[in-house]
Amino acid sequence: MKKLVVLFLALLFVLPVMCYASSIEVQEDSVAVGNAVKLDFQGELDVTFDGQDTAVIDFDGWTHEVVSATEDTVTAADNKTVFISTDPDDATTFQLPTAAAGLQYTFAAGVGGVALKVDPVTPTDTIVYLTLDAGDEIDSNSTTGDSVTLAGAATKWYVIGMGSSAWTDGGAS
């Protein structure tokens, strides 16, 4: 009887784990390729429950670009890029593309003394921070670790992350 109780308890612990492990089906191009408990990947993921599409989750990683120039033009193709400025002698001005939903960029000072300036290309686009008006750039305080992450929407760039010192209104360029 004791062995039967131990076996029953063991099944109570093992059975749910086995059921969970087989509950995540991995598919490629709608063809089942196996089951998983943990997924580790990059790319676009379609999530479905009971055959109903519920979300598309984008797990594409961010890329990094080191910039030593005094000016850099950012394009929509640079979406999800971290720009790291390394020129301590001059300010680096990053020219943003026209604001659009889904665009995100991070600008960071890689060394001390780097002044960062982030300027919207369109004079009607606004970086939503402090008292910036349409067309105003946002300027860093030249401190190591200065960073700002912006997310685009129609005619607006929203500050969604900031590091180190305060940023200021650089006015219209």
Provide a brief overview of the structure.
12% of the residues lie in helices and 45% in strands. It is mainly beta. It has two domains: 2-58, no CATH class; 63-172, Jelly Rolls (Sandwich).
List keywords for this structure.
Jelly Rolls, 173 residues, 6-stranded mixed β-sheet, mainly beta, 1 helix, 5-stranded mixed β-sheet
Notes on the structure:
This protein is mostly beta strands and 173 residues long. The chain folds into two domains: 2-58, no CATH class; 63-172, gp9 (Jelly Rolls). Helices cover 12% and strands 45% of the residues. Strand 3 (44-49) and strand 4 (52-58) form a beta hairpin.
Mean pLDDT: 77
Number of domains: 2
Give the biggest beta sheet.
6 strands, mixed
Side by side, the strands of the main sheet go 5-7-9-13-14-11
Order of helices and strands: HEEEEEEEEEEEEEEE
Provide a count of the helices.
1
Task: Please give the radius of gyration in angstroms.
Answer: 24 Å
Strand content: over 45%
State the CATH topology of the largest domain. Jelly Rolls
